[in-house]
Amino acid sequence: MVNKCSVPNCRGNYKNGPKVTVFRFPKGELLRKWLVAIRRNDFKPTSNSRVCELHFTKDDLEYVTEAYDERRGCLISVQLPAPRLRKTAVPSQLDGCPSYLSTTVTYREDPNSRKERLDNEQVAAAIAESLKTCTDYEKKHSFSSFNELLNVLKTADISDFWKMVTENQKYQRKEADTKLSRAVDNAPHFLN
């Protein structure tokens, strides 16, 4: 059974109206605020009474849920299958009623959530920059053959302890150099 909207003049989920998400009436003090907001005299909501999403602002609805993954250090966001209502939301958009009966409410992000969001953004930016730097470094210093190693060595900062001997643009190779060449070809393919 599809629940229909209880707000006067609303056709939400009726046969000739739009198909929308509906929300149960809350309990306690918030229920009183909802009843005043929908402007129905002597209305007693039942367990089947609902108010549709058309009567809430976009700020009242949540379309994404988020959780912080401490292991990876990032914020994970997942699209919700249906909008979720904020705990403090009150219906404020009453179509078919005079505009002065509809009120708009703006919500501020609470300071702790804002601080956490900004911290997560900074951590994510730092991780992305670190990964980019690492990738650039590996591209600059990687090689897969002895000739590529020689090209990398030309641009690398190498201690004066190491000497390269060249003759007419050919590298001299003796027995020890040949063994070194074979060892380099089998070594890990990046220069630290």
Automatic annotation (TrEMBL):
Gene3D superfamilies: THAP domain. SUPFAM superfamilies: Glucocorticoid receptor-like (DNA-binding domain). GO terms for molecular function: sequence-specific DNA binding; zinc ion binding. Residues 1-94 form the THAP-type domain. Its main location: nucleus. Keywords: Cell cycle, Coiled coil, DNA-binding, Metal-binding, Nucleus, Transcription, Transcription regulation, Zinc, Zinc-finger. GO terms for cellular component: nucleoplasm. It comes from the Eukaryota. It is found in: Nucleus, Nucleoplasm. Pfam families: THAP (PF05485). InterPro entries: THAP1/10, THAP_Znf, THAP_Znf_sf. Belongs to the THAP1 family. This is THAP-type domain-containing protein. It comes from Oedothorax gibbosus.
